[in-house]
Amino acid sequence: MSNPLLEAHVLPPFKSIAPEHAVPAVEAILAEGRAAIALLAEAGEPSWASLPARMEDLDDRLSQAWSPVSHLNAVVNSPAWREAYNACLPMLSAYGTELGQNAGLCNAYKQLEAGSGFASLNAAQKKVVSNALRDFRLSGVDLPEAEKKRYAEIAERLSTICSKFADNVLDATQAWEKIITDESALAGLPDSARALLRELARAKDIQGYRVTLDAPAYIAVMTHADDRSLRQELYTAFVTRASEQGPQAGQFDNSAIMEEILALRFEQAQLLGYGSYAELSLVPKMAESVPQVLDFLLDLARRARPGADKFDISDFQPWDQAYASEKLKEAKYAISQEQVRPYFPAPRVIDGMLRIAERLYGLEIRPSTTAELWHSDATYYEIFEQGSKIAAFYLDPYARANKRGGAWMADCRVRRRLPDGSLQLPVAFLTCNFNPPVDGKPALLTHGEVTTLFHEFGHGLHHMLTRVEVAAVSGINGVSWDAVELPSQFFENWCWDKEALGIMSGHVETGEPLPEALLQKMLAARNFQSGLQLLRQVEFSLFDMKIHAGPALSSAAIQVELNTLRAQIAVLKPPAFNRFQHSFTHIFAGGYAAGYYSYKWAEVLSADAFSRFEEEGVFNPDTGRSFRDNILAQGGSADAAELFRAFRGRDPSVDALLRHSGLK
Ligand code: ZN
Fold first, then answer.
1. Which are the contacts of 407, defined by CB distance < 8 A and separation ≥ 6?
2. Among the four 38, 41, 152, 188, which has the fewest Cβ within 10 Å?
3. Rounded CA separation 142/107 (Å)
């Protein structure tokens, strides 16, 4: 049977790729990979060409088959795609674990590093080798046999209980409901929120309204319900999920799981020779040490505090906060997303965004009909620099049935030099879920949606404008977790710039750009309660860092850490029954353990990088070239701190973030 995923193509042949191709292709490629790696690990004196370059070929072959599978599963999902995709996942994860603990392969990398040819490798190549050695080490490859086995056991147990933590949160969220039959209890709720609650009831064959702890229902009620006791009841259920408190006390309790997760992470760190899990987590990150991260967060808290205190909210209860904030915001700024929408027809915004990128980085970007597409909503674009094509991307902007929600950038092809000497150009998938055009009229975006588009295109530019030629550090590959949001958050800044808004906005009927008065209102509302929000982020980040910075803690000791922190920095003191930590899935079930600070860390970098544009001109082509050359072009080929210094001429400063947040 011919399989398009096993043939070489410049771009994926979307029209001929079908779900039944996925499993055989992945099986065949993994088998080829295993056979090739067995030979690599045993070959004599390794060189760049015989080892990392060969590994890159194998990885790229896998990625060229897997990336269209994963993309199609997300954007044209069907039972057949889901089944094919899920069948591949365990095969890929087993292959990854096997590579990480392959001692023969690791030794070959060590020989390469110690060998005579190493000095003549370029900086990106050296970085690839040192990253590979680091990752082998962090997978436990060097440990004595018994400890290696223990490490693998811990990894397996952690993956089970972290997933159990998330399941408990989900189950606790779904198990609670409140049925309301008297509509007067819903006073204050807008029609859209009432419709949502009615729909939630109807889905369960219930008359009336059903309030749940799912985000849309929870947020709607907490923001709009005039009935204070309803808000209090809902708040209590929400902040005690998966704990020993509240209306479901003990039913889905994560207390023991949190203790075990922290204990296993600590043991894992110790096996690898680190004093704490926080130290281990920081090894591949831009931040250098635990004290540095703690200082960074405490400094932010100190600076944000005066701004947060400006709001007169001391008499409020926690369940009043969203409600009172909304009332205050409406009174103060008199602005809604609906007012702004007609100025942002999607085609106008997309075209304007591309013109802005062209101007900033000296590019030419145009649509092309030369690529196969998976859906008529998608468009393929090519990027040129001084007449030569350097990159391409697909943009699939609108929501539709069977398309995964959210917005993201993924790579389709990575930039790299091929064994025959030719260059493989980078290609990106940009996917959003904007409200689609209706009745032949263009889709009208909210300003939030415009910002999302810029954010994802910022990631896309990082992937596509790289000049690195080795895949493992090309584009966003090999970039530290706490620096990867720099180019995306950075590009969002143009959504708030008057001149840029003139390029990307145009009223759907009159073509008039966004009026100055409206922009001023938007800018004023942008920083509403930003001090409070910043302090909340800092509180979560400090909590995450502190509980991972020492030996394992009991559930009671975890609570003490949180209480101590809140006494120190929180403006709104939560009630004693609050068990926020029991549903903190980012750190107990996601990738953010001892890394939640990354959100703020990257925001400092992006704001500070943009401040150079504020100083030199938001469209200054020299500044644009410098950002391109020092950050976007470099990918993961050097440490993020080094690249930042090369662009900014100094270490990052928090001043710009505080100023942009209205706190300075
Ligand atoms: Zn992002």
1. 431, 432, 433, 452, 453, 455, 456
2. 38
3. 10
Cα of 488 from ligand 1 centre, angstroms: 6
Q: How many CA atoms lie within 13 A of 266 on its CB side?
A: 16
The closest alpha carbon to 221, from 188, 176, 179, belongs to: 188
Token pair for 595: 């890394």
pLDDT digits (tens, 9 = 90+) for 163-209: 889 889 989 998 999 999 999 999 999 887 898 899 889 989 999 99
For strands 388-398 and 427-434, give the pairing.
Answer: parallel
Task: Give 450's contacts (C-beta < 8 A, 6+ positions apart).
Answer: 344, 349, 495, 504
CA 408 centroid distance within chain: 8
Q: Which of 465, 460, 286, 245 is nearest to 363 (CA)?
A: 465
Centre of ligand 1 to C-alpha 489, Å, is: 7
Single-letter residue type at 124: A
- Model pLDDT for residues 586-632, shown as the tens digit of each residue: 899 878 999 999 999 999 999 999 999 999 999 999 999 999 999 99
Q: List all residues 6 or more positions away from 349 whose beta carbon is below 8 Å from its beta carbon.
A: 445, 450, 453, 504, 505
User: Do residues 26 and 64 lie in contact, with contact meaning Cβ atoms separated by under 8 Å?
Assistant: no
Please tell me the distance between residue 453's alpha carbon and the centre of ligand 1 in angstroms: 10
Give residue 455 CA to ligand 1 midpoint distance, Å.
6
CA dihedral 274, 279, 283, 286 (to 10 degrees): -160
Going from the Cα of 460 to the center of ligand 1, the distance in angstroms, rounded, reads: 10
Active site (annotated) includes residue 32: no
- Kindly list the structural domains of the chain, giving each domain's residue range(s) and its CATH number in brackets, ordered by start: 4-142 (1.20.1050), 176-239 (no CATH), 255-334+530-593 (1.10.1370.10), 340-529+599-660 (1.10.1370.40)
Which stretches does DSSP call E strand in 196-268?
A: 209-212
- Could you tell me the end-to-end alpha-carbon distance of the chain, in angstroms, rounded to an integer? 65
Q: What are phi and psi of 287, to 5 degrees?
A: -60, 140
pLDDT of residue 313: 53
Q: 606 C-alpha to center of ligand 1: Å? A: 12
CA 533 to chain centre: 19
DSSP structural state of residue 4: G
Cα of 371 from ligand 1 centre, angstroms = 26
459 CA to middle of ligand 1, Å?
7
Reading the block at residue 235, the tokens are 């708040």
Give 338 Cα–ligand 1 centroid separation in angstroms.
25
Find where tokens 């982020």 sit: 537
Q: Containing H/E element for 334?
A: none
In the set 56, 382, 456, 539, the catalytic residue is 456
Residues 234 and 220: their CA atoms lie apart, in Å, by 11
Which residue is listed with tokens 């931040």?
287
Distance, in Å, from the CA atom of 208 to the CA atom of 326, rounded to the nearest integer, reads: 26
> Which CA distances in Å does 465 have to 358, 389, 619?
12, 11, 18
Per residue in 137-147, pLDDT (tens digit) is 999 999 998 99
In terms of C-beta density within 10 A (0-12 exposed, 13-18 middle, 19 or more buried), how is residue 87 classed? middle
CA 7 to chain CA centroid, nearest Å: 32
Residue-level length of the chain: 664
- Compute the CA torsion angle 585, 588, 593, 595 (nearest 10 deg): 10
Tens of pLDDT, residue by residue over 199-230, are: 889 989 999 999 999 877 898 899 899 999 99
Does this model's pTM top 0.70? My answer is: yes
5: tokens are 């995923």
Retrieve residue 70's tokens: 């994963």
Say which DSSP state 259 is in.
H
Comparing CA positions, the residue from 254, 211, 246 lying closest to residue 575 is: 246
